[in-house]
Amino acid sequence: MSELRKTEKIQTGIPEFDLILRGGLPFERLHLLEGAPGTGKTTIALQFLLKGREDGKRGLYVSLSETETELRASAASHGWSLDNIGIFELVPLEAQLDRQQSVLYPSEVELGETMRLITDRIEADNPDLVVIDSLSELRLLAHDQLRYRRQILALKQFLQGRRCTTLVLDDLTSQSGAKELHSLMHSVISLEQIERTYGAARRRLRIAKMRGTEYQSGWHDFAITPGNVLIFPSLIAEEHKTDFEPATVSSGLAGLDELMGGGLTRGTTTMLVGPSGAGKSSLALQYVMAAVNRGDHAAYFSFDETFETLKLRSAALGIDIEDAVRQGQMGWERANPSRLSPGEFVWQVRRQVEDQKARVVVIDSLNSYLSTMPEEKALTLQMHELLTYLNNQGVVTILILAQQGIIADVQNPVDLSFMSDAVVLLRFFEAGGEVRKAISVVKKRTGVHELAIREFRLFPDGMQVGPKLLDFHGVLTGVPTYGGSPDPLLRDRDETG
């Protein structure tokens, strides 16, 4: 067995955090949890001690920055009780020390005395788990950086001889010396809070260092809710491969299946592209309800509209999504771009696929997803990783992309070839004094498809894909020319494919 696998781990009380840590924090080590005030250090530390109490371990919280009353109030806000967890509140030492020192600086006396009080309390309680909050307070007591470093090294050596796992917090309020401690720590976990121009702040963490054990590198989004710290591990698509049959999935609409060369293929991504109002969401719902009718679970993630508006619109087409959601056959998630982090969105998709066994996933729309955070390049790469994961799971993924403009010069905001295996284009065109809709397949990697352009119409009892527009030229420009027999468009429902 390798040395990495021999390392005993302590669970943190946050399952997804333990997943990133490949089992938990290494036993009998000194771990640094650093981040600016408000990033969630205390909350994570409390969950660490609460999990230890649950597992029968003795815990001690050494507080140099908060009173015991404040700490208990913070825990109570999450519905937690700190009973049977030791709390050591260090009062200001200037009230205890004789300030008439002639040999030593007062700061040197305070630091040494503070460290002695901490070690004495640890010896008295003999805890399995210790939290020290925070190093920034100790740093302020030190007269110089060298003395501070020596004291931390002495504390590390003291703790290592006691079979004790320690989590020390640092709020980085003093940048001088903050990074120098990294070399003394067995692991360093960094927390970060990013303020958006509008909407909720984005929290994320990363394992900056961890000696002698495996971990998942990179940044991971997380959120703090009452009673929980929810961490969303960054997705590595290659770790989630499954065997599946690349079968063809029908839409339940004969003309559409004919246009698609039989249907969509499992393990592929199809992008529905077109201007607003062209019928992209309605087309996606057709595939969702076809999956539900086959007995498969489908998931719909909407950034753009509420469930009520989608329900009304689908009802106008004779599609009852409310009943499918109520019976658990369809998962509905309203994604609020101003509140949702990219990592949390990916985690929601994974839960639908892994827990609910979703076989069809719709994301409506890609434009809104890309607007959730300003670093668009990173979001595009993250979406590509998500799509690779869905393909590896054998899911039929449908992305909706709204184009800018209505007719003629319509621009695509993303590179379609980068994200899709198939591209279905919907366009408006003018004919006979009316605005019509056209549908065509411009790309399909997994097989042949029709090269034709067909008319696409929505009716109160469903949608229809009409015959090929053989007598029109320039349909995709928005203003076609006609050179055939009169009235070749979709008029009679019996003429549909």
How many strands, what sense, and barrel or not for the largest sheet? 9 strands, mixed
CATH architecture of the largest domain: 3-Layer(aba) Sandwich
Regions with little confidence, pLDDT below 50 for 5+ residues: 1-5, 93-107, 492-497
> Which fold name fills CATH's third level, the topology of the largest domain?
Rossmann fold
Helical content class: 25-40%
Distance between the termini: 63 Å
CATH homologous superfamily name of the largest domain?
Answer: P-loop containing nucleotide triphosphate hydrolases
Number of helices: 15
State which percent range the strand residues make up.
25-35%
Number of strands: 24
The CATH class of the largest domain is Alpha Beta
- Rg from alpha-carbon coordinates: 30 Å
Envelope shape: elongated
Total number of distinct structural domains = 2
**Helix-strand makeup class:** alpha/beta
Mean pLDDT across residues: 87
What is the strand arrangement across the widest sheet?
A: 5-4-6-7-3-8-9-10-11
